[in-house]
Amino acid sequence: MSTTQQSPTAAGSGASATEAFRASKERRGGANVDPERVSAVVAAILQGVHSAIREHNVTYPEFQAAKAWLMEVGETGEWPLFMDVFIEHVVEEVTSEQQQGTKGTIEGPYYLPDQARLESTCQLPRRDDEKGTPLVLEGQVRDIDGTPLAGAEVDIWHADDDGYYSGFAPQVPEGNLRGVVVTDNDGRFAIGTIQPAPYQIPTDGPTGKLIEAAGWHPWRPAHLHIMVRAEGHRTITTQLYFAGGEWLDSDVAEAVKPELVLEPQDDGSGTRRATYDFELEPA
Ligand code: DHB
Ligand code: FE
C-alpha cells in the first residue's frame, strides 16, 4: 500500500464535496416532505439522541463541545463526507432490501457526472507518469434473466495510488481515473486502469478529529466506484474491493459486502486482471 505525505486539506476536499453535492441536486430530484413522515423520522432521531444523553449522563461541557463540533462540520463543508462515511450505508441497506441483481453499496461524496465516454475496451484517462500497478477490470453487463445489455454505461471513478480523487485534490488533474465505459454488442467491457490505494478520511478536519478523539481509524479499503446504467433497467451504484486488501474487515464507512470483493490475478506481465459481471433488474 502506498499512503501519502502530501495530504490535500480536509477543508479542500470537504468544500469540493459540498460543491459537488449542491451541483447534483437536479440529478437526484427532491425528497418526499410529507409532514407526517418528517415528524416520525425526526422524532425518532431526537429520541435516539435523548436516550444517548440519558444513558451516558452527557454533561454540559460535552453538550457545548458537540455544538462547537457541529458548527465546524458545517463551516468546513464536511457534511457530505461525514454523512457518506457514517450514515449512507444504512440508507443503502434499507433501499436495497427489495432489489435483485448485483449488490449496491454507498456512492460516497466523490462522484462527478459527465465524464469522458469510452469504448468498451479502453484505458481510463490518467497522467503520463501515473503511479500504480496496472489493473484491468473486465466483464459483462446483463439483465437478471441473463440477456447481455449492449450500450450499457459502466461509469467508473476511483482514487489514485496515493488515495486521492480527481476533482477533490488539487494535485490530480480533472477527469483523471474517471470514465463512462459503453459496453459492446455482447454487453462486455474491459477497462484498463491502475490499482487504487486505500482511502483515508482527511484527518485535519472535524470528521478526522472526531475519529481521532474516539480512537477509531480513518481508513476505507481500496475500492473502485461503479455506477451501471442501461435503458429500461434500475441503475446500480456499487463499489468493488480487492481480496486480501487492508481495512477490508474494518471499513470506516461499513460499505464492504462479500459479493463485491474482486480476486485479481497477475497475468504474468505485471498487470492484475479481475472479472466482474453486473446484473441489472428491470426498472
Ligand atoms: C468517503 C470517501 C470515499 O471514497 C467513499 O467511498 C465514501 C466516503 C468520505 O470521505 O466520506
Ligand atoms: Fe471512495
UniProtKB/TrEMBL annotation:
Residues 9-18 have a biased composition (Low complexity). Keywords: Dioxygenase, Iron, Metal-binding, Oxidoreductase. Residues 1-34 are annotated as: Disordered. Its cofactor is Fe(3+). Residues 22-34 have a biased composition (Basic and acidic residues). Gene3D superfamilies: Aromatic compound dioxygenase, Catechol 1,2-dioxygenase multimerisation domain-like. PROSITE patterns: INTRADIOL_DIOXYGENAS (PS00083). GO terms for biological process: catechol-containing compound metabolic process. Residues 137-165 form the Intradiol ring-cleavage dioxygenases domain. InterPro entries: 1_2-CTD_multi_dom, Catechol_dOase_N, Cchol_dOase_actb, Intradiol_dOase_C, Intradiol_dOase_core, Intradiol_RC_Dioxygenase. The keyword Cytoplasm does not apply. Pfam families: Dioxygenase_C (PF00775), Dioxygenase_N (PF04444). GO terms for molecular function: catechol 1,2-dioxygenase activity; ferric iron binding. NCBIfam families: catachol_actin (TIGR02438). Belongs to the intradiol ring-cleavage dioxygenase family. This is Catechol 1,2-dioxygenase. It comes from Nocardioides gansuensis. The gene is catA.
